[in-house]
Design brief:
By secondary structure, this protein is α/β, with parallel strands linked by helices. The chain is about 35% helix and about 15% strand. The chain has a single domain, classed as Alpha-Beta Barrel (TIM Barrel). It binds S-adenosylmethionine.
Length: about 325
């Protein structure tokens, strides 16, 4: 097992199945252009082999499938079928929900029981101006259908000053009423926001600001969370839970156990580092040839992790999937 001086190791793998997306969220894609798949994306088979090799070489236990938008990828079915047979403790998926109802039978059959749905507002007009794609009613309906099919749902919201702060309480209430867990994600300095401090600071909403807002209506207590959790979790007694992924306010670098594989075959050990390591060629090789080389790259990827605090990175979220 590869472990660093701080005792960190890779346990959680996040795979970006494709960089294509049917949204163009303002904080992710500043020019508003709909994203297409990169030309050199790996096949479903190579990506699934990547998961198998990384289970062995890095001790991966949990897999999250993300993107781009994973549900637009033609590779989804073949990939899900392959990774569903690998004995992972947990496979989950992050989606914007547009195609969720359509893909639900496939996801249920593949053993997915937990999904995160990104939703920044319940206001249809604000939805159009932030997501710049898709349709709000479709997302809400798909979450109902997923919940009815037995899926555990978390909703990801990025609070943005001047755009959706008025939606913090409506979304929280919506989620509490339905038993979904709302996760606020503090805006991260990724892609264009890594270089444009003004744009970042104008929109950024901190953990403390969120808690003050929520505290005006509800009493909350800090709840337990796993040691390597990214979110600070709170309980509203009698009503449910919510969480805040507070990259800036409460950095979790010291316990980070995440490894990312991009759709084009690059390993990223840290969101905050511009280092990446190409493994696409190794994934076509047989296990005995691929594993030693992969292990050397994993040592480098683990060395890319920040010591203490998240400082942002030039990589765009659509490439590595958040
Ligand atoms: N398309 C899928 C979705 O919408 O969930 C998966 C990919 S998306 C990049 C994953 C998550 O990253 C979303 O919840 C999105 O809101 C979040 N995200 C993207 N850019 C971000 C940023 N700069 N700061 C914080 N969260 C961001």
């Amino acid at each position: 097992m590869i472990v660093d001086r701080q005792g960190r190791r890779f346990r959680n793998l996040r795979i970006s199945l494709t960089s294509a997306c049917n949204y163009a969220c303002t904080y992710c894609v500043p020019n508003g252009k709909r994203l297409v798949a990169a030309q050199d994306e790996l096949s479903a088979e190579a990506m699934a082999r990547g998961v198998a090799y990384l289970i062995e070489a890095a001790g991966i236990e949990r897999l999250r499938i993300t993107g781009g938008e994973p549900l637009v990828s033609p590779k989804l079915e073949a990939f899900m079928t392959a990774v569903g047979q690998m004995g992972l403790a947990d496979i989950s998926l992050t989606t914007n929900g547009q195609l969720l109802a359509k893909k639900l039978p496939l996801l249920v059959n593949a053993g997915i029981r937990r999904i995160n749905v990104s939703l920044d507002t319940l206001d249809a007009s604000a939805f159009r101006s932030i997501a710049r794609g898709g349709d709000l009613a479709t997302v809400l309906d798909s979450m109902d259908q997923a919940a009815a099919a037995g899926m555990k749902i978390k909703v990801n919201m990025v609070p943005l000053r001047g755009q959706n702060l008025d939606q913090v309480m409506p979304l929280l209430d919506y989620c509490l009423e339905r038993g979904y867990e709302l996760r606020f994600i503090e805006l991260m300095r990724m892609g264009h926001l890594a270089t444009d401090s003004n744009a970042f600071l104008q929109q950024f909403v901190s953990l403390q600001q969120l808690l003050s807002l929520i505290g005006e209506r509800y009493e909350y207590l800090q709840a337990d969370a796993p040691v390597d959790a990214t979110a600070v979790r709170y309980q509203i007694p009698g009503l449910g839970h919510f969480g805040v992924i507070a990259n800036e306010s409460v950095p979790f670098c010291r316990t980070c156990s995440r490894l990312r594989l991009s759709s084009t075959g690059w390993l990223h050990g840290c969101l905050s580092s511009s280092n990446r390591h190409y493994v696409g060629d190794l994934l076509d090789k047989p296990r005995h040839q691929a594993l030693p080389a992969l292990q050397r790259l994993l040592v480098k990827a683990l060395g890319d992790k920040q010591e203490v605090a998240f400082s942002g990175g030039a990589t765009i979220m659509k490439i590595i999937g958040g």
